[in-house]
Design goal:
mainly alpha
């Protein structure tokens, strides 16, 4: 998944499903969104956790 695809998936989830996240998930995803928007480093573990959270919301 490219950085752009990751940002789109993350942004859509935050905009459309923010209320369905727990407090820490919302904070974590919002922080990741900020980091991706400002081209700050995001570790592979952070990406994996975000994708796991986003996939859980889709179900």
């Amino acid at each position: 998944m490219t950085s752009h695809d990751f940002f789109i998936k993350l942004n859509d989830a935050i905009l459309l499903n923010y209320d369905s996240f727990s407090a820490w998930e919302g904070t974590f995803l919002t922080e990741l969104q900020y980091r991706v928007m400002h081209k700050l480093p995001v570790s592979s573990k952070q990406k994996q956790l975000a994708i796991k959270i986003l996939d859980r919301i889709k179900k």
